[in-house]
Amino acid sequence: MTPARLGLRARASRVLLDNWHGQSTVPSGGLYPHQWSWDSAFIALGLRHLSPRRAQRELESLFGAQWPDGRVPHIVFDAATPADAYFPGPGFWASAAVTGPGFPATSGLIQPPVHALAAWETFRAAPELARERGFLPRLYPRLVAWHRYLTGRRDFGGRGLVCVVHPWESGMDNSPAWDEPLGRVRPATAFTRRDLDHAAAGERPTDLDYGRYVRLARTYRDLGYADDPAGHEFAVEDPLTNALLAASEAALAEIAAELGHDPAPHLAELARLTAALVDVLFDEGDGCFHARDVHSGQVLRLGSVGGLVPLVVPGLPVADALVKTMLGPRFRLGELGLPPSFDLTDGRFEPARYWRGPAWFNIGWLLWHGLRLHGEDELAGTVRAGLLSAADDAGFREYVDPLTRSGHGAHDFSWTAAVVLDLLEWGHER
Hints:
Protein name: Mannosylglycerate hydrolase MGH1-like glycoside hydrolase domain-containing protein
CATH architecture: Alpha/alpha barrel
Largest sheet: 4 strands, antiparallel
CATH class: Mainly Alpha
Low-confidence stretches: none
GO biological process, one term: oligosaccharide metabolic process
Distance between the termini: 11 Å
Family: Belongs to the glycosyl hydrolase 63 family.
Radius of gyration: 20 Å
Mean pLDDT: 95
Pfam families: MGH1-like_GH
Shape: globular
Number of strands: 11
Number of domains: 1
CATH topology: Glycosyltransferase
Oligomer: single chain
Keywords: Glycosidase, Hydrolase
């Protein structure tokens, strides 16, 4: 590893060490002072190269807050952090009314299910330590319960695909892909935003959209977090969520085999999800997956990078079409080396506003992983180089302008540092 790469590794390591809070890692000390679900999965991918034990604890901590119904909440609140440090805070969600006493305070929403993939990669980093600690035997049944929650409680459309009931659940909160179904929601007005204390308004969702987010979350809470389609104004079959569930089923098959269980049910679920994704959400005309609004039945044909993430699914039959789309004018991945979060040719593209155009490092990692999975090593190398260069230049920011690589959002962002560590380690091993 060159001196420059060693320096980048040291800086990335420092971000993760500084953001570690004893049992888990916060995404960023100011803007996000608690534990976030899919953040922890990506963080574990980087932590496994610094401390495999700590990476295992990251995931164990998150699943320690799993609800009795199997859902993994998108926020686990740190009891030592002031309740008003983040909005919506623990009092807003009132999770104890559902989970009962003895559970940590959490939100009631979910985030994309990338956890089994992270757990398997974490195990592979130090298998003897993981076996000694009983990492997989303890986590496997929780992962199975999590997937069963998604497929059993969130198939609102009856097509075998998981629905998200809030833009926050997609992980790509402010994407223009959600504008149409979100536009039906009457915004709440009585709330105090905390995010603008830490980031510029031009980089964050508008007050109007934030009010709609709050309205949806309040309604779900007031319904006791019941998963009834009739109670949700926003209900969308999201390609990114379903693709990560399929990829995680493939990882569960590996975990099952390691534990001496039958991997066949997970492989069957992988095949079922893959077929449903392609049959329902893939558009042959533009070579991309698109979300589907369950209430209207309408396919939301907008150029979100989430429509490229199904490349992480092993054996995806339309992988070549996705690669062609990545290289085309809407994403220009071969030229930029960074994946814009939204179609560059669309008038709604905003290079600095949250999920409406900036490049995100976790999405870059997923595309890099999917490209290698499907034999696109040269383009994967371009993405790896682009992510490392952007992180080095911008200093581990939450996201970057894909055209200028200027940094935006939170500073010292954990999954940015984690992705950098994993990409550096892969190159070192090579």
